[in-house]
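Preliminary data (for renewal application), uridine-diphosphate-N-acetylglucosamine complex.
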Amino acid sequence: MDTILVRGGRRLTGTVKVDGAKNAVLPILTASILGSTGVSTFHNVPALSDVATISHVLAGLNIDVTAQSNNTYVVDAAGELNHIAAYEYVSKMRASILVMGPLLARLGKAKVAMPGGCAIGSRPIEQHLKGLTALGANIVQDNGYLVGTVDGRLKGANIYLDFPSVGATQNILMAAVLADGTTVMDNVAKEPEIVALADYLNAMGADVTGAGTDRITVNGVAALHGAEHTIIADRIEAGTFIIAAAITRGDVFVEGARADHMSSLLSKLEEMGVQLTVQDNGIRVSAPEALTGVEVKTMPHPGFPTDMQAQMMALMLTADTASHMTETVFENRFMHVDEFIKMNGSIKVNNRTALVQKQNLHGAAVKSTDLRASASLVLAGLAAEGYTRVTELSHLDRGYVNFHGKLKALGADIERTGDRKERAEVR
Ligand SMILES: CC(=O)N[C@H]1[C@@H](OP(=O)(O)OP(=O)(O)OC[C@H]2O[C@@H](n3ccc(=O)[nH]c3=O)[C@H](O)[C@@H]2O)O[C@H](CO)[C@@H](O)[C@@H]1O
Ligand SMILES: C=C(OP(=O)(O)O)C(=O)O
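Predicted structure:
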């Protein structure tokens, strides 16, 4: 079992470069299913386990995914495709459900294993199904699979989402691009990853406008081709390193961080007293010793991202005055709280709100429960006295490339090892 061992107390300094965004590359790789001629070439693809998982899902559909170099992938979806996405890989990653829309649009049929719940909540998909059904798909559940069929071609429709779900917006959008006629989607998600997906679809020959606003309009086209696309920088990874700098009261340049993708996070950090200088190619972060507590509520973009909630809570633990963190997006995304408490963190949860107060953090043996929880525990470890040992790193590897290596290069006292029981310093 892999372990990260981090000893707190080092001030981070230097430059760290952000990789491509997990939440952009996953839907974009599923969109490549739509390219019935030519190939797609993707640059800045991050070396994440989730990218390997979605590549296996695509391979199972008879799509050729080749890594040309570390970060450049070529996808050839021009051949005859299989329409079945099997449980083995779909069950590993929620985003696999995003093959449904493209398969229905391209083949008129799809059989996709039910993605099921995960640690942060039950994560239903009724908004995906509502939209795909409105476009004319008939979808039933059969033996743990969602089986969808289309009589002829999908047809454009007006679709209102009850909640601006990121995945539902993407799935419906990827179906609508090949539908007959115009689709108008309202109350859609506005995340930068939605804009990136629309950019790639348009490069493939689609006609999509309005991505990044509440309404997306799609004029369906008959066919799409492969295209070249560069994956945007990961705003959540960038935010995580900004907090790593702040929690150690360090001075770090986060190369690739885009202020226009992270305004809510940057505002809240400035409210705490963190100093941020936005430059053309990144953000410089420095932090004074004393930080102020803040009130934060997670919301769909451009609100404060739920994917930064755990990391922000780690920083709140080091602020001089109390903070409140309210999670509104997922019903069960406070699992890191019990682990912070093992590190002497002072946190009281009432329903969806956590009251976070300063108390000196101590190193401890803690367990990752989900992707962002794992990063937040390492962050807390950077600020804690003594050694923190973080296990269950498969979560971390879903969304961070060489997390410990990047922190080490900034001066952190951190190692990633196998299960080395001889490290007696760990409490
Ligand atoms: C691969 C990817 O991009 N993942 C991101 C995506 O997940 P994902 O696309 O799954 O997130 P959604 O925006 O769909 O989900 C947000 C909330 O809506 C609920 N919901 C969603 C769909 C639906 O049909 N019914 C329903 O009730 C979910 O259970 C959740 O409580 O957006 C989340 C919210 O920013 C992020 O945390 C994830 O990192
Ligand atoms: C929850 C996340 O991702 P996913 O939707 O892929 O589980 C995340 O990136 O924090």
